[in-house]
Amino acid sequence: MACNRADYLERTIESVLKYQSSVASKFPLFISQLQHLDFEEVHPERPGELIAYYKIARHYKWALDELFIKHNFSRVIILEDDMEIAPDFFEYFEAAANLLDNDKTILAVSSWNDNGQVQFVHDPRALYRSDFFPGLGWMLTKSVWEELSPKWPKAYWDDWMRLKEIHGDRQFIRPEVCRTYNFGEHGSSFGQFFNQYLKPIKMNDIDVDWNSMDLSYLKEDKFLKHFAKMVSDAKPVYGFDAVLKAYNIDGDVRIQYNDQADFERIARQFGIFEEWKDGIPRTAYKGVVVFRYQTPRRIFLVGPDSLMELGIER
């Protein structure tokens, strides 16, 4: 998906072609240029809104309609013109395609982790389910697009995807270590979050043999038990100074937060994303946000209802 950043697009295409040549028959490459479609006047719904977000949403709908309806693809991976991809990008999505096809509780598969900064990740093979749509390099199926296309929003399509009324009880697959790197400091969002959250992202740089890995643990019923055990096994830490206490504990740690303000306070101390959308923190599953801290141990920030949703006794 491209607009008016020729230098960015060139960098993205070079990155894709570097790893696409061996799988080109499976992964044909399409480039969609917004300017060529920009022929209708845009009318923002609220004063002062950026027209760019309306044009972007319109572009996404047009391009995905073309690929799914006109070209009849069963799945599409979406990149934007400010991304580089990891060496195992295509193998990762090929392995995840089987999950996406057979588990209807998965809405999409993403290559991105919002808390994927180098200090918060460790295992390039670890994957999670999330209630929060990550975007930034993601795959969806034709059947999902046929559901989304008729009600596609006029603007802010990514936040729209994060609404509970849109994703319902379905989740997204995301990696611990990102398979894309977003270098887009200059764009429609004016570099928001870039230096703090995007620039330090760790993109996977090793080959992972995804074909030999059993990803069945990511199916809804299995993952709930798998994730619940990790959370249950983590040592609970309490008190306003929980972050300081966690620093001095070996092994995985879980810290309870009481509400959004409490989560933001704890997240700020660790340096992870504080943002929520429609009641869900970025990367969260059942209200739990997990990241590495002084690797390889994990920190689980656990919501007020998370233990109950995971079936863990208090």
TrEMBL record:
Q: Which GO terms describe its cellular component?
A: Golgi membrane
In which broad location class does this protein mainly occur, judging by the first location in its UniProt entry?
Answer: Golgi
EC number(s) stated in the UniProt entry for this protein:
2.4.1.101
Q: How does it sit in the membrane?
A: Single-pass type II membrane protein
Which cofactor is essential here? Mn(2+)
Gene3D superfamilies to which the protein is assigned, alphabetical:
N-Acetylglucosaminyltransferase I, Domain 2, Spore Coat Polysaccharide Biosynthesis Protein SpsA, Chain A
GO molecular function annotation: alpha-1,3-mannosylglycoprotein 2-beta-N-acetylglucosaminyltransferase activity; manganese ion binding
The entry's localization annotation reads: Golgi apparatus membrane
- Keyword annotations: Glycosyltransferase, Golgi apparatus, Manganese, Membrane, Metal-binding, Signal-anchor, Transferase, Transmembrane, Transmembrane helix
Q: Which Pfam families match?
A: GNT-I (PF03071)
What does the record note about the cofactor? The cofactor is mostly bound to the substrate.
Name the chemical reaction catalysed here. N(4)-(alpha-D-Man-(1->3)-[alpha-D-Man-(1->3)-[alpha-D-Man-(1->6)]-alpha-D-Man-(1->6)]-beta-D-Man-(1->4)-beta-D-GlcNAc-(1->4)-beta-D-GlcNAc)-L-asparaginyl-[protein] (N-glucan mannose isomer 5A1,2) + UDP-N-acetyl-alpha-D-glucosamine = N(4)-{beta-D-GlcNAc-(1->2)-alpha-D-Man-(1->3)-[alpha-D-Man-(1->3)-[alpha-D-Man-(1->6)]-alpha-D-Man-(1->6)]-beta-D-Man-(1->4)-beta-D-GlcNAc-(1->4)-beta-D-GlcNAc}-L-asparaginyl-[protein] + UDP + H(+)
Q: Which domain of life is it from?
A: Eukaryota
Metabolic or biological pathway: Protein modification; protein glycosylation
Give the protein's biological function. Initiates complex N-linked carbohydrate formation. Essential for the conversion of high-mannose to hybrid and complex N-glycans.
Q: Which family does it belong to?
A: Belongs to the glycosyltransferase 13 family.
User: What is this protein's record name?
Assistant: Alpha-1,3-mannosyl-glycoprotein 2-beta-N-acetylglucosaminyltransferase
In its UniProt entry, the species of origin is given as Acorus gramineus
